[in-house]
Specification:
Distance between the termini: 33 Å
Largest sheet: 7 strands, mixed
Order of helices and strands: HHHEHEHEHHEHEHEE
Oligomer: single chain
Mean pLDDT: 94
CATH superfamily: Vaccinia Virus protein VP39
Number of domains: 1
Radius of gyration: 16 Å
Low-confidence stretches: none
CATH topology: Rossmann fold
Structural class: alpha/beta
């Protein structure tokens, strides 16, 4: 489902900063070589992630769901000089693909890959991140197993600083979240996640109809 008419999206794209050349190549190669290329954030969403990261100016980012690493590099653009992004994914094959591009990135010294279950790694985050000193996350991006979104959120939110930002992707799920006749496990999990967040008094939030839905969640 397209939430915005293509002519309007194209216009918005034309008045948005261009993506770096490396990310343009990564996007092309994702579509040529990797399954489910639509999972790649791409130009418009990628520039939004970069913009938000620069506003937060984080020292510590956690990303759940690396895929081919496009969003990772966008988020890394806003890191402080001594900042780090830890990106988690269970898929070794796509992690290797992403790493090839991380090694070409100007942010390569700030990107750290963690391979394994997002739940397990987040549960013991201090152990899994060698220089996780303060226990404070500035920015988190959730874009992995939809059925575990609420679990990721519940593990991340206590570790975030006040004013920290969580971004959750795919929360509109091609519009399925508003269809009463659609009740598959992913859709139901996202409905549960959205309903939980909207009533969580620890945060303020805005759900944006960007691509497949981005939920911006700021810890109070």
């Amino acid at each position: 489902m397209e939430f915005i008419a293509k002519v309007i999206q194209d216009y918005a794209d034309n008045f948005t900063d261009k993506e770096p050349a490396l990310l343009s190549q990564l996007n092309r190669d994702t579509y040529l070589k990797v399954m489910y290329p639509r999972m790649c954030s791409g130009h418009f969403q990628g520039r939004l992630l970069s913009f938000l990261s620069k506003l937060v100016n984080p020292k510590f980012i956690v990303e759940v769901g690396t895929y081919t690493g496009y969003s990772t590099q966008c988020l890394a653009e806003g890191l402080q000089a001594d900042g780090r992004i830890y990106t988690i994914d269970v898929d070794v094959e796509t992690a290797d693909f992403a790493n090839d591009y991380f090694l070409q990135s100007e942010h390569k010294s700030k990107i750290f890959q963690l391979i394994g279950s997002g739940i397990e790694i987040l549960t013991d985050l201090e152990k899994n991140t060698q220089k996780f000193n303060s226990g404070v996350i500035d920015l988190a991006f959730i874009d992995a197993n939809k059925e575990q979104y609420l679990d990721y959120y519940q593990l991340i939110i206590p570790k975030m600083r006040s004013g920290g930002l969580i971004i959750a992707d795919n929360v509109l799920w091609s519009g399925n979240v508003v269809e009463k006749s659609i009740g598959d496990e992913d859709t139901e999990a996202l409905k549960k996640f959205n309903n939980f967040v909207v009533s969580d008094e620890r945060v303020e939030r805005i759900l944006m109809p960007v691509r497949d839905g981005l939920y911006l969640i700021r810890k109070i």
